[in-house]
Amino acid sequence: MLKGNATLKSAALKGTTLKGSATIEMAYIMPLFLWMFLMIMTAAFYFHDKVILYAAAYETAVTGAELERREESDEVILAEHFQERIKGKLIFFSGASAEIEESLEKVTVRISAQKGKWRIQGEERAAVMRPEILLRHKSKEETR
């Protein structure tokens, strides 16, 4: 039995070598793999929340257009509807807000959410359709 450096030298002389290259390579590669996995998961959560926010914004805009057509629309009711639609569904973004703008022709919902440097901002619109007015105008023109 040899001691110290003599052990390594004698092992090399006998044709067997001691290798630690796999351990050292893994020490460099594994943090890179873990970082890539975390970035992929973060991106997946980001896009998950983005889809939910855009869908809730569009649904709120369509609901607002229907209520505007019936002249029952209120921005506070629509903001509550938006918050109800996203409640408990977001993974990455905890606080999202919606700014609702109503006009005679369209309802616009602007959304925003932020966590750190990650941010989602978007806008969805729905036209206020009034087919009964169009049909009345056409029927008046036809009777003339």
Automatic annotation (TrEMBL):
Keywords attached to this entry: Membrane, Transmembrane, Transmembrane helix
Annotated transmembrane regions: 26-47
Highest taxon above the source species: Bacteria
Pfam family, one: TadE
Ranges where the TadE-like domain occurs: 20-61
Protein name, as recorded: TadE-like domain-containing protein
Organism of this sequence: Mediterraneibacter butyricigenes
